[in-house]
Amino acid sequence: MLVTLIVSIITFVLMTLSIIFLPTIKLGRIRLGTYWIVALLGATILLSTSLAPIDKVFEALTAPSSINPLKILVLFFSMSVLSVYLDEVGLFRYLASVATRRAKGSQLGLFLIFYALTSILTVFTSNDIVILTLTPFICFFAKSALINPLPYLIAEFAAANTWSMMLLIGNPTNIYLATSSNIDFLSYFKVMAVPTLFGGIIELAIVFLLFRKDLKAPLHNQSEHYPIQSKPDLILGLALLGTCLLLMAFSSYLPFEMWIISATCALVLLLVALGERLLTHKHWDYLVDCLKRLPYALIPFILSMFVIVVSLNVQGVSAKLGDFLNQGPPIWVYGYSSFLASNLINNIPMSILFSSLPASLATESSTQAIYASIIGSNIGAFLTPIGALAGIMFSSLLHKQGIKFSFLDFTKYGFIVSIPTLSISLLGLFLVL
């Protein structure tokens, strides 16, 4: 047990240090994230020393249960295909440019419109995709309009990692934790709608109060217009995303699991898009760039974290941690501990670890613990950049745009916004459950 714990802690510490000091390395023309390389090395050590028994890992990877990490990866990647494709077609940039024109010279109006746009897009697509798309747009617009970008950037990041709680597909952590307790799409929404609304309202108020003076300054420049280049591709993407969401909402009444539904919709999208390009010889860049932008690094990262957690389970570490956490009220204990754990080891490995901890609790308490952990995994993303991959991407994008926003800056604003948002969201969960 001790050796497993030491190897796991060293892996988590090195992963954290790599995120802070060396987030990427360059091999020729290829730039790789270091976080998943460190995780892979840790998992390899555990496998090679039999601390993570290969038969147990194989058994978990081939299990017919909904917590199978391969099914979860397929579900997440399928939704990423649908979201990234719509972004490549230009939907997100088009909506952002429309939002800036609707503000009519008012920063407060623009602030509220951008918060609403970020929230809506996050609910129906993915927080990571929204951050990747809107962050450069906000930076560019703020520079051209000579305004402070921070109110919009902080509101965007907070909204993307709060409204991602609303639907099961909003974050890979939602998917993993919910499926570990066999929570279906519709049941998830019924519970998480209220905590998300509570958290969204309080964080909007906090960010507004922080930057109310900046938001009083007028807007002088208007945004460049970004038209939709291919309406057939837009219709195709929206139709399949809508179909996917509708079928998943009723998946508990269908003979298909959610990963099969999402994979089918993504495959249909890719095949129809490929056929259209073979016939018209147009817009190949949308399809190619979509495939290039998929988060492939999540595959070795999630599988490596899964191996580490299997090792912790086999060696009895997870059981001891679960016994410790299960002594208090589940909503508050798991909500705050998952929030803190996300910022120690990142929210994806936290979710894999926490999915098994409430096993010894009664059904009602176990359900409370899982939902509280989902809230902690999402809101934990905006305490420090370590909290989620979204924070790493966000910090990298700001650096590329020449905007000074240090680790300390991130944590300062993150602390002010995240603690009240977490507490109010957990209160909402308490009222629902």
How would you explain this protein's 3D organization?
This protein is an all-alpha fold and 433 residues long. It has one domain. The protein is built from 20 helices and 2 strands. It has helices spanning 2-21, 34-48, 54-61, 69-89, 91-102, 107-124, 127-145, 150-160, 172-180, 185-211, 231-249, 258-280, 284-293, 298-314, 317-325, 330-345, 347-354, 363-379, 389-400, 407-432; strands spanning 24-27, 30-33. It has a two-stranded antiparallel ribbon with strand order 1-2. Helix 7 (127-145) packs antiparallel against helix 8. It starts with a helix and ends with a helix. 48% of the residues are buried.
Task: Describe the structure concisely for a colleague.
The protein is mainly α and 433 residues long. Helix content is 73%, strand content 2%. The two termini are 36 Å apart.
* Overall number of structural domains: 1
Query: In which range does the helix fraction lie?
Result: over 70%
Instruction: Note the gap between the termini.
Output: 36 Å
Strand content: under 5%
Provide the gyration radius in Å.
Answer: 21 Å
**Outline:** globular
| Number of helical segments with 4 or more residues | 20
Q: What's the helix and strand layout?
A:
Elements: H1 2-21, E1 24-27, E2 30-33, H2 34-48, H3 54-61, H4 69-89, H5 91-102, H6 107-124, H7 127-145, H8 150-160, H9 172-180, H10 185-211, H11 231-249, H12 258-280, H13 284-293, H14 298-314, H15 317-325, H16 330-345, H17 347-354, H18 363-379, H19 389-400, H20 407-432
Antiparallel strand pairs: 1-2
